[in-house]
Design goal:
The structure holds three protein chains of three kinds. By secondary structure, chain A is α+β, with helices and mostly antiparallel strands. Chain A has eight helices and 21 strands. Chain A folds into two domains: 230 residues, 3-Layer(aba) Sandwich (Rossmann fold), CATH 3.40.50.300; 112 residues, Beta Barrel (OB fold (Dihydrolipoamide Acetyltransferase, E2P)). Helix content of chain A is 24%, strand content 36%. Classes of the chains: A alpha+beta, B mainly alpha, C mainly alpha.
């Protein structure tokens, strides 16, 4: 166990940014803090870095309590969203700065700078100033500066969000590969769930300062712990249909599903089903539910179809080339074995 | 080929005309006056200038005054800017209080300090006496060396706020992310100050020094009230000497020559400083 | 521990900055006995308004005050009226080649012109057109002092405004002048206020030109009035301190009205 936070609470004025968050990571892991803006993920990262102090709670790095330590003494490196390069220094000076601060001999510094620059493809830019670099290049300089000191942990605050989408995808892959090589525990903040799913070995989802779920990407995708996680991860989002269950049958006008496992008193349940688990047909099929086509989106490799039925919408994935006119009649079937059940009151998943 | 006038010219023209009337024309007039006396065209004023000991002394004293005041005001202003920037509470109150001296008419500031400096009844010697010092020899503005220092102190009191203000504005315009990065990279307060804050502050520093230096070289008001250039000519700066020549002795030609030479020197100095700014 | 030191240093600085001003105020309110008391009396004295009454009744300070007021406000208004359009012209129109930089630089360099250079010709010139010892002459000179500053500051503020609002108005049929008066002017009000306050203070405090160009009692401004009562050897404490306080008050009032613009205004103007 390398990096661990226990019961972190932080308040800004009247607002609770973090409420009793506990998290632990293993050596070499790539943990992503995911959530909508305002959920507290950046605050948590800054507390770990030492740029903010928690109102309550402890931060431990390899069993060392670093909660009160100044950032300069924590031996963690941080990549900021805006890269935070020193505008008046050259690329080489930027990268070498952490070593210069630690008073390493300048021969050692230049050797290390060259090594790191070569590894990140920056060797030809060493004499340039940050303002002469493109966004992607600046980001790599920020990375170089972080890895040169071989810290015990990497902290990254939405480092890719200022890049254009094509570059972002390329850098994502590079980042994942690099982290694997360095094998240092990394904590990465993002609001982009695709980034989280592709990069993380484990994802910690936060909302309103509370930890919602902390698990591997497949687990989060296939076994979401509550309604929020279910709706946040996956694109297009999971279809969520509230209804009632009674005597073993779930009702939502137009839809009935048997739930032999669920007996007992009447409950409000929400049904969740991913778009890829919904079948579609233009012809009537026995047992299928009728609906009207609201809109179709042909993406080339598949078609997304949105159906409206009984004041609700269902989005589903259909094979490429499926055609259906707006407002035409169609039928859909929810595969019962792929359904997720949630308690409508507590929003928790029911297993 | 007819050149079309820029469309914005009509907006700028009135201001340009007024300024031309109030600066270009007088400048030409000045040159004319400096080259003439009662009998007509003459170079006499300029030749006399280069032999005039009093002028060299005055120029030297002006330079000393400017350098001493500038150095003190800069370091004090910087220290205060950094100090106030690091306070958690009450920054606004401290700033407003520190800015007060700068707002006063220099004449009034001089009056205040004349009262303070008065050897028998002034509060400075009064407090020193309370602490047990003998003040018989502490005459502040009447002693030859102490006069210059006393006058410089008044300037420091009044104008350190100016540098404090400019440097504070500069500090506030530095982005905070590189500073946080330096902290995480391992730099403590003084290290960050030296490696990141001061280099980024350089343009502001140069601008502040330039503006203040220009004003210091033409210092007049305070000295006029505090010592009138005395005792003797111990605190007579160039401006005072020119003033006396022109308006006490009515020697406009000579005074004009001095003014022109002074202008050339300060313009060259300003150009030099500005080139330094452009480089950074 | 460090915080205590920091705040102590800050308090010390504040004390050093404000104490002389406080001292001036106390002298103006003290009787002669208290003024010359040794050891000095800081708080425990009975105040008197005699000195204030004196300077207004006997020494024509009311007159000087009025002169200062007229000169300051008029020159500020004129400087703004000339400077804002100039700033707008420099900020919003396209200029060939390096004109705009050249003009700005020339305007700025005017600020660097030592008054001592223009004072002799101004004295002689104004003498010729009989504007010596008149408020009009002083107003003219103060406009010259403040105009470069107005253009410099307002240009920055105008450039900060998004162009789209003005462009929308122009498309709707508004004239350029209308755009300036109806759209730009309200939007730059804070910057304009800060600049106006600076100009007022500069004109109010101005001494050298006032000294030379208004030597008769009827035309003297406050700083000159004060100086004329100060000789090298003697100074009337009560009268001078009261006059000093009267000279300071408007400035402090102007300044506190605009104090939150100070840092922002200077940073915008200076850093550009």
């Amino acid at each position: 166990m390398s990096l661990r936070v226990e019961n972190i609470t932080k308040r800004f004025g009247a607002r609770d940014a973090l409420r009793g968050v506990t998290l632990e990571t293993r050596d070499g892991e790539f943990v992503v803090l995911l959530g909508p803006s305002g959920c507290g993920k950046s605050t948590l990262l800054r507390i770990i870095a030492g740029l903010e102090e928690p109102d309550q709670g402890v931060v431990r790095l390899h069993d060392r309590d670093i909660t009160q330590l100044d950032p300069s003494r924590r031996d963690v490196a941080m990549v900021f969203q805006g890269y935070a390069l020193y505008p008046h220094m050259t690329v080489a000076q930027n990268i070498g700065y952490p070593l210069r601060v630690r008073r390493r001999p300048s021969s050692e510094i230049s050797a290390e700078v060259e090594k790191v620059a070569a590894r990140l493809g920056l060797a030809h830019l060493l004499r340039n100033q940050p303002k002469q670099l493109s966004g992607g290049e600046r980001q790599r300089v920020a990375l170089a500066r972080a890895i040169i000191r071989r810290p015990q942990a990497f902290l990254m605050d939405e480092p890719l969000s200022n890049l254009d989408s094509r570059l972002r995808i390329d850098m994502r892959a590079e980042l994942k590969h690099l982290q694997h090589e360095l094998a240092v525990v990394t904590l990465y903040v993002t609001h982009d769930q695709v980034e989280a799913m592709t990069l993380a070995s484990r994802i910690a989802i936060l909302k309103d300062g509370l930890l919602q779920q902390y698990a591997t990407p497949p687990e989060i995708y296939h076994r979401p712990a509550n309604l929020f996680v279910a709706g946040f991860v996956g694109s297009p989002a999971m279809n969520l249909l509230p209804g009632t269950a009674e005597s073993g049958i779930f009702h939502r006008a137009g839809l009935s599903i048997e739930l032999p496992a669920l007996t007992g008193a009447r409950r409000d349940l929400t049904l969740g089903i991913r778009p890829e688990d919904v079948d579609f047909s233009m012809a009537e099929q026995p047992g299928w539910t009728p609906a009207r086509v609201w809109v179709t989106e042909d993406l080339g490799n598949e078609t997304l179809i949105r159906l409206s039925f009984d004041e609700a919408f269902v989005t589903l994935r259909a094979p490429a080339g499926t055609r259906a006119g707006i407002d035409s009649l169609a039928w859909f079937r929810i595969r019962p074995e792929r359904v997720h059940w949630f308690d409508s009151q507590t929003t928790e998943a029911i297993r | 080929m007819t050149r079309r006038l820029p469309p914005g010219l009509v907006w700028v023209a009135p201001a340009l005309l007024v300024l031309a009337a109030l600066s270009i024309y007088p400048l030409l007039y000045l040159i004319k006056v400096s080259l003439s006396d009662a009998r007509g065209f003459t170079f006499e004023h300029y030749t006399r200038l280069f032999q005039d000991r009093l002028f060299t002394v005055a120029a030297g004293q002006t330079l000393f005054y400017a350098l001493a005041a500038l150095t003190l005001e800069f370091f004090l202003g910087l220290a205060l800017a950094l100090l106030v920037d690091s306070l958690a509470h009450g920054r606004a109150l401290v700033r407003v209080s520190l800015l007060a001296p700068m707002l006063l008419p220099p004449v009034v500031a001089a009056v205040i300090w004349r009262l303070i400096y008065n050897p028998e009844f002034g509060v400075l010697n009064g407090m020193l006496r309370q602490l047990g010092f003998h003040t018989a020899n502490l005459t502040w503005t009447s002693g030859r060396t102490s006069a210059m220092l006393s006058v410089i102190l008044v300037d420091v009191w009044q104008w350190t706020p100016f540098l404090f203000l400019l440097l504070t504005a500069g500090l506030q315009s530095i982005p905070s992310e590189p500073l946080e990065a330096a902290r995480v990279d391992g730099a403590g307060y003084w290290r960050t100050l030296r490696d990141v804050v001061l280099p980024l502050l350089k343009p502001t520093i140069l601008l502040a020094l330039l503006l203040r230096a220009m004003d210091l070289l033409r210092i007049f008001d305070q000295i006029f009230i505090l010592t009138q250039g005395g005792p003797g000519s111990a605190t007579e700066t160039a401006s005072l000497y020119i003033y006396r020549t022109a308006f006490r002795f009515s020697n406009f030609g000579y005074a004009a020559a001095m003014s022109f030479v002074g202008l050339v020197i300060t313009t060259l100095a300003a150009r030099g400083l500005m080139r330094l700014m452009k480089i950074s | 521990m460090k915080t205590i030191l920091k705040y102590s240093a800050a308090l010390l600085a504040m004390a050093f900055a404000l104490a002389p001003i406080y001292w001036l105020i106390t002298i103006s309110l003290k009787t002669e006995i208290d003024q010359f008391a040794s050891p000095p009396v800081w708080f425990t004295f009975t105040p008197t308004l005699r000195h204030y009454a004196g300077i207004f009744a006997h020494d024509a300070f009311g007159h000087y005050f009025l002169n200062s007021l007229i000169v300051s406000t008029c020159s500020t208004l004129i400087a703004l009226a000339l400077g804002l359009p100039a700033a707008y012209g420099l900020a919003r129109f396209r200029w060939p080649g390096d004109w705009s930089r050249g003009i700005s630089f020339w305007i700025l360099s005017n600020r660097m012109l030592p008054p001592i250079v223009t004072i002799i010709p101004m004295f002689l010139m104004l003498r010729e057109i009989h504007l010596l010892n008149s408020l009009a002459g002083l107003i003219l000179v103060d406009v010259g002092l403040n105009l470069p500053f107005v253009v410099w500051m307002m240009r920055g503020f105008v450039e900060d405004l998004p162009r789209e609002i003005e462009e929308a108005a122009l498309l709707d049929g508004e004239s350029r002048l209308g755009v300036l008066l109806l759209i730009v002017l309200p939007l730059v009000r804070p910057g304009l206020a800060a600049t106006a306050v600076f100009c007022l203070i500069v004109a109010w405090n101005e001494f050298l030109f006032a000294l030379i160009l208004s030597q008769t009692q009827s035309a003297m401004t406050l700083p000159v009035g004060i100086a004329s009562h100060v000789t090298q050897y003697e100074i009337q404490w009560g009268a001078m301190s009261a006059a000093g306080v009267v000279a300071i008050l408007p400035v402090l009032i102007f300044a506190s009205a605009a104090q939150r613009y100070f840092v922002r205004g200077l940073s915008l103007g200076a850093i550009k």
